Automatic annotation (TrEMBL):
This is J domain-containing protein. Pfam families: DnaJ, DnaJ-like_C11_C, DNAJC11_beta-barrel. GO terms for cellular component: mitochondrion. Residues 15-83 form the J domain. One of its GO terms (biological process) is cristae formation. InterPro entries: DnaJ-like_C11_C, DnaJ_domain, DNAJC11-like_beta-barrel, J_dom_sf, Mito_inner_membrane_organizer. Keywords: Chaperone.
Amino acid sequence: MEEDNSEPNSSLEDDYYAFLNVSRDAPTDEITNAYRRLSRLYHPDKHVDPANKREAEIIFNKTKKAYEVLKDPHKRAIYDSVGIKGLETDGWEIIQRSKTPQEIREEYERLARQREERRLQQRTNPKGNITININATDLFNRYGYDLDYDMPNSYPAIEVSGMAINQSIEAPLTSRNTSSISGHLSTHNGTGQGTINLTNRYTLSEKSWVELGGGAGAGPLLLFKAFRTLYRRTFAQMDTFVLFGNNGIRTGIDATMGVNLDSGSMGYLTWRTGSSSSMTTSFVKDTETYNTNVSVVFGVPHSHLSFAFAWKRKETKMKIRTSIKIGTAGLTIEYGAEKKVSEQSTVAAAMAVGVPTGVILKLRLTRASQTFIFPIQLCDEPLPSPVFYGTVVPLVIFAVVKRFIVDPIVNEQAQAEKKRQKDTYKSRMAEKRKEAVAAVNLMSVAFARIRSEEESRRGLVIISALYGKLTSQGDPGADLSDEVIDVTIPIQCLVKDSKLVIYESTKSQLPGFYDPCVGEDKFLYIQYLFHNQLHQTTIQDNEPLRIPRQSHRVVAT
């Protein structure tokens, strides 16, 4: 069984679609039928006992509220966009009832943008990048020690040959103005330099912006950028600079045009002038499972063709990368992997083998908005030994660190988060449990009637149904615990004309259900008879279900 990737707290928030057991694109008549079906179960007039009447009134009011929201196109548009909190937002009373659902969504998005802009005015966006170049060529020096003063028994020399630090922050001044300050420091083999830039971006409209700025470093620097959406799928951007240096005035222009070819595909044409002029054509395809990038560069002094491919493995939060670059400056082949080890941390390693660049191991650690990069020069020539050790050693180190350091920390944090969720929503869970018990109690008459009808026609009879943190299949008794609840009665009451349909949503929102294990993976196990034949199935919490099915039949052995 696969993991359930639903949001941990979603089962504690009311989901009107799940409660009525209708799809999110259900028409109004289907919603009305679901409401009427539940009303026959929970309307207070259907119950004589005072205690049952009080419980029925609570559940019926919830049913009525869900129906009133989903039957009204305006309220439904708000609910679909932002959930229950949207219905409780101040200011909705000023929206005209004549507005369409799409206009309501756009209105809310406008209000949301305003709130976001106010929030951004109080927040900076720090970004940092530190690159440390390491020279480790002495580890794989292929030359012998021919001279008398060589010391073959000494330790290999590993040194830091260069370092670069980039840092920037943003400060939203108004809804249209954003200022930023950035700095750069670098040193290589004892020679260093640094720059500092201050820019301000002004948003002209939703389709265009301009950015002006200046800086200092190798001399006074003037900067100008502009962006414009030309058509629905086309944009253009231009970056220019003027540097007043000791050797005179230097200028440069980068002009880019981008075209959205289709969903996930972009084409770019870039013209660059300055100390190294070039014309670049590139194509990028980005999907949920892979990313492809093809570029052709014609320039002075060098031209090249490059191809890169990344395979995304969503289930393991990993990307496998490979690329090749060939041109007048030589050939480089690169392969590597990237792994997301936590919500805010990503590690990556890549091996680059080329002529004349040699063998370079690239390590990268990203934590939130800070990135640390370590290019390690293993050899000046593409020899087999540095390629082998540069590939195997990082893999072994990562496996050991992940197994004995990262995994224990992540598991401890996950358990602490689950405990925090349970403690936070303890009272809410008690309320949900009480509501579910009351709903099951009110279903007793309907359960007996529906089950009797299904038995008489040899239809769909629910033998057993369990919901929660299941650990076994085929033996319902083995899973009964505080984290598993019996939902046989609620499931039987959902049967209509010997069919059961449950739509894609958390089952904890169904009448008679609740979440017995907040933050844990949950499953629904059903054992049923159809035409007096035994069937059984287990599905994930958010997985849709339609029974009976021939594939669920239990074959006697």
